[in-house]
Amino acid sequence: MNLLIILLMTTAFFLTRVTNMRTAVGIFLAQSVMIALASIIIGFETGEVHYYLAGLLTVVIKVAFIPYILFKIVKRLKNERETNSLLSPNLSSLAAAGTTVLAYGFIDQALPGVISRDALAAAIALVLIGLQIIMIRRQAVLQIVGLNIMENGLYLLGLSVTNGLPLILELGIFFDMLVAVAVLGILTYRLKISYASTDTTLLRKLKG
């Protein structure tokens, strides 16, 4: 499990430096595979069947379906890249490192000696890094990836705190993510058609 946490954080740091949208979607796919593995590992350790079901749902929705949609969108966008980020790649990585340090410091202060310290800190860091990506990136696809990274962090948090959320709640979260990605995907494509770019700052032109 500790190896998965290290790999999750490594992919999150890589994501703060990526400007190619296809690469960003690939990193999200790899991270979702790790989240699915984490759920399956906990299912193996506890013997609870619903962890296996949650892992299977993660594979179907976040490893297969959502990346498939995003890859199709990226293919239609040709060679568009992130060129107008609020922060440079170096500053983005530095901010992510600071966020991770704060997450570990918060867990050490709030829950000293907790067994799942690393998983909790990593989960909080993933949520904050996902939020950072949404805030500093201008390309709609990268913002969608940031939203999914936040959800991965929340899912890991659920696994760390409660050894998994109730299956019905997990189903609701997955359905919400599917709807959100589908809607944002449509909006991204319409933005490309209307403005020949998916830079979300162009939406400011819609202000009255």
Automatic annotation (TrEMBL):
Subcellular location(s) per record: Cell membrane
Transmembrane spans: 21-44, 50-74, 86-107, 119-136, 141-161, 167-187
Membrane topology: Multi-pass membrane protein
Keyword field: Cell membrane, Membrane, Transmembrane, Transmembrane helix
Chief localisation class: membrane
Lineage of the organism: unclassified sequences, metagenomes, ecological metagenomes
InterPro entries, alphabetized: HyfE-like
Entry protein name: Hydrogenase-4 component E
Native source organism of the sequence: bioreactor metagenome
GO-annotated cellular components: plasma membrane
